[in-house]
Amino acid sequence: MTDLPPSLRPFVLPVEDAGQVRVERVGHVDLYHPAGTARTGAILFVHGGPGPDGLEVSPRDWPVFTGYATVAAQRGLVAAVVDHGLIRGFDQLSTAADDVEAAVGVLRADPRVDPGRVALWFFSGAGLLAGEWLDSRPDWLRCLLLTYPQLATPPGVDELVNAAEVIGRHDRAGGMGKVSPTDLPVLLTRVGRERAELAGPVAEFVSAGGAALDIIDVPKGQHGFDMLDHTEESRAAVTKALDWAIAHLGEEPAGQLPLPAASAATATSTLPPRPSTSTPSTSTPARPATSAGSPAKRAEPASTMSAPADQPTEAVTATPAAADSTAPAEPAPLPAAVADLTAAVAAAFAAETPASRVVDREHAMYAAHDLEAFLALYSPTAQLQLADGAVLRGRRSLREHYRPQFEAGRCKTELQQRMTLGDWVVEQSIRHDSDQGPVPTIVLYRVQDGLVVEVRFLA
Fold first, then answer.
1. Domain definitions of the chain by residue range
2. Which residue numbers delimit the SnoaL-like domain (predicted)?
3. How far is CA 272 from CA 48, 238, 276, in A?
């Protein structure tokens, strides 16, 4: 194990029966789905950076992050890991912030996710991206976690939002030592053997955080302890952090992985017995109600009518001649090529594919009037061709085109029929999003690498 680079060393928690977790790659985001079909809360894991020169394996494939995501999914959450620009250098900090924002849109658009119950978990250098979320505090963000974070930008690097200043400002708004009713729960996991240049800003953050901050201490841990220090202390710290996130997302922590009895005493925790104020969602996932040509509901196809039950028939004795003249002839078998084509067409109408799942997410965000989450499912270079021949290119053009419609709350389309073939999804729909009343339309979507790259309106 010591011969491996740090990024490829195993996760400190055992990850067993990972086959029950389904992993789906959507652009720069890997989604980990738990067994079952219930809608649930979600965690986005945000790796640090910059990475070493000559990095061959992207962070979302590092064992530590596949481990975190798999364990979270095994415990009933949807988990996601995003590859972002900070791995290439501090000059990519703004790009990384955009990457994380887009990943949030992809995660909240997932049909298995309750979009109002999401946690963000930042590691190492990604702590520089956390300040903006601490400042904006969207309603859907239930909690935020920081593990051995970097909280001060190096000299010469443009700072985004200073996390210590933000958490202090919000804490003061709650009064002397009191937690504001709208306060965002924040968990810091800090290590006792932290590098000096990181430990100072972390101490400043702790001083500013006050009652708004929960802390897990790993006294013997080093930066990257969750892949470098395979100790009971490390395992206990990671498990406590997962328990904390699950509790704040409104999930029961009963499904946690068992730890040896000694684990409970090997990590120092300053977590107060603060009860979670979040409640589990009781909503059931509705069929996505679409988008550019997106469904509010699926019409039941006429072919679902059941066949009549068999009726008893009266026995008849007939001469061969009578049979020839009155009995229906046996249908001739279909030629093999026609039968294969018929089967292929039937499969194309019935199949769920990776492309159709992406289009379903796009439809759900359209119906929810969430413009940024809707755009996050499009490639940055996506092309959309309208029925009049006009062409929109890129997310900026799409945003300008769709913003008035989203702001007016006119995002309703009823799916009539769908066919899938490889990267393509073809839909026949009734649009209810214009001043012209119900408008029949046919829309073609092309999906690559988990993002919509092309849309064509044919009518």
1. 6-269, 354-457
2. 363-455
3. 28, 17, 11
Please, what CATH class does the domain formed by 354-457 belong to? alpha beta
The sign of the CA dihedral 6, 7, 11, 12 is: positive
- Tally of CB atoms within 10 A around 229: 18
pLDDT tens digits, one per residue of 223-250: 999 999 999 999 999 999 999 999 999 8
Residues paired with residue 381 on neighbouring β-strands, in sequence order:
none
Least confident of 2-11, 67-76, 153-162, 318-327: 318-327
pTM check: above 0.90? no
Q: In what order do the strands lie in the sheet with 40-46?
A: 22-26, 29-33, 78-82, 40-46, 113-123, 141-147, 186-193, 213-222, 268-269
CA angle 450, 455, 459 (to 5 degrees): 150
392 three-state secondary structure: strand
Q: List pLDDT tens digits, range 286-304.
A: 333 344 444 333 333 333 3
DSSP codes, 186-253: EEEEEEEE--HHHHHHHHHHHHHHGGGEEEEEEEEEETTHHHH--SHHHHHHHHHHHHHHHHHTT--G
Rounded CA gap, 178 and 211, in Å? 6
Strands (E), 263-354: 268-269
Bin 329: left if φ > 0, else alpha if -120 < ψ < 50, else beta: beta
